[in-house]
Design a protein that fits this description.
By secondary structure, the protein is mainly alpha-helical. It has helices at 3-37, 45-52, 56-59, 66-85, 97-114, 116-122, 129-153, 160-184, 189-206; strands spanning 154-155, 210-211.
Length: 214
């Protein structure tokens, strides 16, 4: 094969890769948009492919089925939580560990309130089991970020048990948000307060946190 042919082949592979990246992103965006408008059980893989402008046959090259696609979207949505939790925390929100814990609950509540896809995929009662199970891994990652936030402002042990506590903190507060959706169809201030109460009680019974000298 000549050098010119090799260059042409590399360009062809690069173009195909870029097209694949664009189609994958289009499918995820289409799923987001449809979840803003419809209930999850009313959305088929064909609907998503059509909304994305991607032939259904081609869409199967990227995702095995709609559950596979929703799982990928759940991971993307979890990144929204990670980015939000990594933003600087105002001094008033970290005066005590309880203030910081409640601040993190508020951050989550705001994201859920603004995102129907997040509500449906992460705390929805109709979330497919396949997606819910995979999202536990995402919660471990978010919990790790929460641990890092706390460790920045408070002296806490550096061990797996302590890190796991923040994962359980997420599961406890998400349960309250899920109950809010079941009972009220939205995240209410009252149920956000319940999420704070439950999360803070759990952390308080699990360990004592000392403020770090800043």
């Amino acid at each position: 094969m000549s050098k010119r042919q090799q260059i042409g082949l590399r360009k062809s592979h690069s173009a195909m890769h870029q097209r694949g990246v664009e189609r994958r992103a289009a499918l995820l965006q289409a799923a987001r948009e449809l979840l803003e408008e419809r209930e999850i059980e009313d959305i088929s893989f064909r609907d998503i492919a059509s909304h994305a402008g991607v032939p259904e046959g081609s869409a199967y090259h990227f995702y095995a089925n709609r559950f596979d696609l929703f799982t990928a979207l759940a991971a993307e949505l979890s990144e929204d939580f990670i980015k939000a939790h990594r933003k600087p925390v105002p001094p008033s929100k970290r005066a005590s560990w309880k203030d910081l814990a409640e601040h993190l609950v508020d951050v989550g509540a705001r994201i859920y309130a603004a995102s129907a896809p997040a509500r449906q995929l992460l705390i929805g009662v109709k979330t497919p089991p396949e997606v819910k199970q995979a999202d536990r891994i995402n919660d471990l990652q978010v919990g790790e970020v929460m641990y890092e936030v706390f460790a920045k402002y408070f002296a806490i042990p550096d061990n797996d048990e302590m890190r796991a506590a923040f994962y359980y903190f997420i599961e406890i507060t998400d349960l309250m948000f899920m109950l809010s959706l079941m009972e009220h169809g939205k995240i209410t201030p009252a149920m956000t307060a319940e999420a704070k109460r439950a999360g803070v009680a759990y952390l308080g019974s699990y360990f004592q946190i000392a403020p770090r000298a800043l």
